[in-house]
Design goal:
This protein is mostly helical. It contains 4 helices and no strands.
């Protein structure tokens, strides 16, 4: 569930940055896209490991990328590359993915203790 939501968030980020000026191709566009793609990629990488501790570690890296993405989206709105409606939609999706990540981490930690 969290991987699917993270993939949808990444796709939304690609769509939201399509209208950015060409001068931002290696700037904000790239930063937003890289952070967004990193989230589901780290979830998938961790899931592919056969160790719960490694999986949790990868999920925490995904959380860091999520916070990085939130920062880039806020900055893109501040410097008027993105309108408020688009940034709010992305930030809501970030919040949803963050809740799922935290829940999965807690669940895995509980199993790891048992």
């Amino acid at each position: 569930m969290v991987w699917q939501q993270a993939m949808a968030l990444a796709a939304s980020c690609y769509k939201a940055t399509k209208a950015f000026p060409a001068s931002e191709a290696y700037g904000m566009t790239s930063q937003i896209r890289r952070a967004a793609v990193s989230i589901p990629a780290n979830i998938a990488e961790g899931n592919g490991r056969e160790n719960t501790g490694s999986y949790i570690h990868s999920l925490r890296i995904a959380q860091g990328s999520l916070k990085e993405l939130e920062t880039h989206v806020l900055l893109a709105e501040t410097v008027e590359l993105m309108n408020k409606v688009d940034s709010e939609k992305l930030l809501e999706a970030c919040d949803a993915v963050g809740r799922l990540l935290r829940g999965l981490i807690r669940s895995l930690q509980a199993k790891d203790i048992s």
